[in-house]
UniProtKB/TrEMBL annotation:
This is Phosphoesterase. Its EC number is 3.1.4.-. It is an enzyme of class 3 (hydrolase). It comes from the Bacteria. InterPro entries: Calcineurin-like_PHP_lpxH, Metallo-depent_PP-like, MetalloPDE_YfcE-like, MPP_YfcE, Phosphodiesterase_MJ0936/Vps29. Keywords: Metal-binding.
Amino acid sequence: MKIAILSDSHDHIDNLRKVLEQAKGAGAEAVIFCGDMCAPATAKIFAEVELPVYAVFGNCDEDQYQIALRGGAKFKIVGLAEEYHQIELGKRKIAICHYPKLADLLSKTGEYDAVFFGHTHQGGMGNHGKTLLLNPGAVCGIKDGKYDEATFAIYDTDTNSAELDVIK
């Protein structure tokens, strides 16, 4: 199973639409969003793609109720009361959060096949033992206060590996 891993769209709706189409073209069957959508209207874009979406909130997601409401029937907020949440997709146990320090701690427990996070807008990945630790970068394309490449990742549950890609 292929899963699109996204984070930090910060209301960049054009990039969000592009990346969702690009992900579908790459064979993604689901989307994981690691926080910082920002405005509730952005959540509506996920409803257009007709894929299941698993999302956690970030530090810029203030109107969480409206974000959840506008995301549509296949949009699942999986981390309302907690700093992280875990799901199982494609026979893989996955932890999703927004913050890198928490992601690092989760990856070191050995309980997960993969841990996905955002917040820093810097894409990258590594491993702690068998656990893949991945930040897909930022859908908004802003890094260190400047426009840069907008990035995301495609995660393959069959191989427990991912590839970072640029939004085109």
